Protein 1
Amino acid sequence: MTASIHPTIALLQNNSLAIVVQQEIERAILVGDYLPGAKLNEAALADKLGVSRGPIREAFRMLDEAGLVRTEKNRGVFVRNIPVDEALEIFDLRAAMDHWVGKRLAESITPEQLKELKTLVTGMEKAVKVKDAHQYHVLNLKFHDRMVEMTGNHKLTDTYRKLIKELSLFRRQNLTDSVLMATFLAEHQLIVQAIASGDAAAAGRAMVDHVMQSKQRTIDNAAVRAAPLQPGGH
């Protein structure tokens, strides 16, 4: 006779599986396998990932809480399409957070941490030279994530990561232009120089300027995309 699984153990197993499923669906969304507006099919995902529908439904719930999908009653679950106004709000919030991050690191960064940031920037330089947008994007995300993590503020890190995931749904097109990659790189180099100098005000300002430049590029890109819809647009 097969021993029954204790209810608590069963719950932990299901929760652990749901987390793994959630992480895999999130990864697929963030790399662009599922584009904004795409419907996520519960049965198809269960079959693809080799799990029952229960963990898929729980993963959908967690992704909804994280702001990456939206659940519509009687219609299903869809990858969120972040409107430009919401994206701009995220940029403003990120600027306030990054201002503090820059100042904090200028005052507290260790030699080992500074070396790590410089190594990431060197990697971005190489990616720019060979016009590898994907590698640049990966290093760019890690560069900013590590800076926030280096402050030691866990609440800030969690909040920052949620905002970046939401923003990634909106601005995947920003890092495909080699000219823009070079511009971003120069801004990163300036940030590291300011932090290395120990000048908290300059580091905070460099971080804010970087975010505000990204915000302006987003506004410009949105205007270009909307132009054909305007009277007389081509």
Protein 2
Amino acid sequence: MRYYIFLLVIAWFLQSCGGHSEEKSAEPQVQFQSDDPVLTGLSQIISDDPENADGYYERAKMLVDRELYDPAIDDLNKALSIDSTKAVYYHLLSDAYLDYYKSGEALDVMEKAAEKFPNRIPTLLKLAELQLILKQYDGSFFTVQKIMNQDKQNAEAFFMLGMIYRAQDDKERAINSFQTAVELDPEIIDAWIILGDLFADKDYKIAERYYDNAIRLDPENLQAYHAKAFYLQNSNRIPEAISIYKEINSRDPQYTDAYLNTGILYLDQDSLDQAFEHFNILVKIDPQNYLGYYYRGITKMFGGDKSGAEVDLKQSLRLNNDFEKARIALQELETL
């Protein structure tokens, strides 16, 4: 798969370095492997109709999914040059820039979109979200106010307002905003989860009810289960927390954080065999997870396996050279 992506990127680079046609309608010359029938089909559609803006947009969506941002951005700019009336083109272009670590360009695109579609609430919400991500809190707040000037009962605007207040550590206003959001639209699952987190910080019993509301509304939402399990873990209700983490892994065997937290809880209880089992599964699923190696190494150290512990702790440091806990553990290991 990596080799395929490498060939695709090289093909794109060679094409971009070549001569430029003077024909206004010529599409970007992106080459794709013939074993990708959907991309090949889209390229053929574009070749047959170089003014097909939706064709460029659909191909860009697939390129973004494949993290091929340069050709995706070119496709989206071409689509916008043909038809600048589609807000979704701007949205995807902003996403592509943001995923490509070009946050300034992403913001520029959404600001242009908001100027072009000043009354389009999804565009304003996306701009407010991006401003929040970039910590432009005043700008995000101003954009949310624009939404509320159009729709004073917009639940997503109140949710975004809560996110702004939360980022500024104004918990009371954040709680009020999130509560208004779920009153207006109980289906905003993230608001229920965040409310649980905020009340858990205040040590209110109501936190658990917020998590339960999220789970009841979306029984497939593993983040809601995780949030509740973490709350139970911090409330020293260990068996209940472990039970939920195991439920998460029964639903999604690739959910690594649940293995990590379960292992830590077993380690705290001196249940070394169970702890080792969960850390061992974690590093097999995610060999780049430095925490998995660290905790497996600690488990081995507690179990008397000094050489095994040293191997794991060194591997943890190789994966994250700045991880001071692993460095300290290695020093302690030498004294045993």
